[in-house]
Amino acid sequence: MRYFVIAFLLLFAAALVFWLVRRGMIIRRQYRELARARDEAEQAGGAKNRFLANISQDILTPINTIMGLDQMILREDAKDVPKEYLASVTAYAAEVKKASEALMVLVGDLLELSRLESEGLSLSEREYDVREMLLPLLSAVKGRCAAKGLEFKAEVDEMLPGRMYGDVSKIRQILLSLLINAVKYTDVGRVMMEVSMEERTDMQCVLRFRITDTGMGMKKEELEQIRRLLEETEDHNGPVFGSISGLGISARYASILGGKLACESTYGEGTEFSFRLPQKIEDASPIGSVSEAEESLDRASYVPQFIAPDCDVLIADDDPVNLEVIRGLLQATKVFVTTALTGEECLQKVRNARYHVVILGHLSSGYDGWETLRRIRAVDEKLPVYALTAKGREAEEEYLAGGFSGQLAKPVDVRELERIIMRHIPESMMERRGDKVSAGTGKEA
Questions:
Q1: Which one of 81, 192, 231, 318 is most buried, by most CB atoms within 10 A?
Q2: How far is CA 383 from CA 65, 359, 406, 425, in A?
């Protein structure tokens, strides 16, 4: 009997050991499978983000061409052109401009979402022009309202400082998201945006943005659900996933900017979203009246910020159309524009001539932009060299750290391009905007 008990215990112990080993093997296999599934999910997510970023940046190149050529059409000399024909062409070009700006906003959304999903939230602050931040939004939303038969009204405080310092990209994204939602849920009546300055002390101010609509509004339980969403998302600083709504992202943006998104709604009457943001003031000059008509880039209203026929600018890009677009945008300034299609050609021209500014775009053969910059710096360490890029402003630190003087975003904003050049030429070389100058054709290389 004793031997039987001992045999039973040994058999039980062996079974227990076998079970424990087997269990450990199963757990390890399950862990490996989970780890593999996690890695595959991360790779798929990374591939999706890379695809969104790449396709969005690829789309920006033709948009840059469309918007640049459209600006050139609006500035063409209208002498001897029949008035009826000129009016039609100008109207068509204005519509192209509005559609391009709306498309730019959508592409910007894709780029921002792909970046947020991989990197999470972070501030990317810079100096910005308040009027230039607002006008593309007004243009895009006015078109959406017109398509639905809605009235769109914008009331912007004329005493707002003209230039401020902050994360203009996130401010624009919040406003765009709220305005698009307002149009989406309004079938009759109007959508309205108000921008005012609530406080100001020295070079600091607090802006208040208010978006209202005359849609159906929300029932009490729906309003409470929206408020819970805003509260749950505004303080979370992790990565942004696709399941988070645009409204949730806007709340998180407002939070990281130092504000808070609020919502009020009356069922059957409409909805209001508002938020307050502290901003630094760079230029306290009042913004004045904001209207699309005043900022139209047509031939009649466009005036260059400066004229400098003795200024030399070198632009390198592997797309000849891009080069012609930038040359055309600078035509009114009379600067001498030299172009290069490759990094090697650009470097050779830097060695053989003196330039006030160099702009490096996409270079697909031979030296890329970074290698071209490295070789330029070996020739001239102080030469202002800017990257022409489809990346957002958040990438500027990367370019500055890599040796560039800054970046010029696609599609090219001619006023930003002019400001870059003005930054690097002496006052004695320029005739400032407002002087009696003619916007004739400049020299070409």
A1: 192
A2: 27, 11, 12, 12
C-alpha 124/C-alpha 237 separation (Å) is: 15
User: Which pTM value belongs to this model?
Assistant: 0.57
For the chain, helix (H) and strand (E) counts, in that order, are 12, 14
Residue 409, H or E segment: strand 406-409
Task: Write the pLDDT tens digit of every residue in 251-301.
Answer: 888 888 888 899 999 999 999 999 999 999 999 889 888 765 444 444 445
Which of helix, strand or coil describes residue 273?
Answer: strand
H or E segment to which residue 360 belongs: strand 357-360
CA distance 185 to 191: 10
Nearest residue to 72 (alpha-carbon basis) of 324, 245, 345, 359: 324
Q: Which of 324, 317, 379 has the alpha carbon at shortest distance from 352? A: 379
Q: Which CATH number fits domain 120-295: 3.30.565.10, 3.40.109.10, 3.90.1640.10, 3.30.43.10?
A: 3.30.565.10
Location of structure tokens 């591939």? 47
User: Distance from CA of residue 37 to its chain's centroid?
Assistant: 34
Omega of the bond leading into 411 within 30 degrees of 0 (cis): yes
Query: Shortest CA distance to 309 belongs to which of 167, 436, 431, 166?
Result: 431
DSSP structure string for 211-265: EEE-S----HHHHHHHHHHHHHHHT--S---TTS-HHHHHHHHHHHTT---EEEE
Gap between the Cα atoms of 305 and 418, Å rounded: 7
* Residue-wise pLDDT tens digits, 186-244: 999 999 999 999 989 888 999 999 999 999 899 988 888 888 888 776 555 444 433 34
Closest CA to 117 of 206, 214, 181, 51: 51
Residue type, 234: E
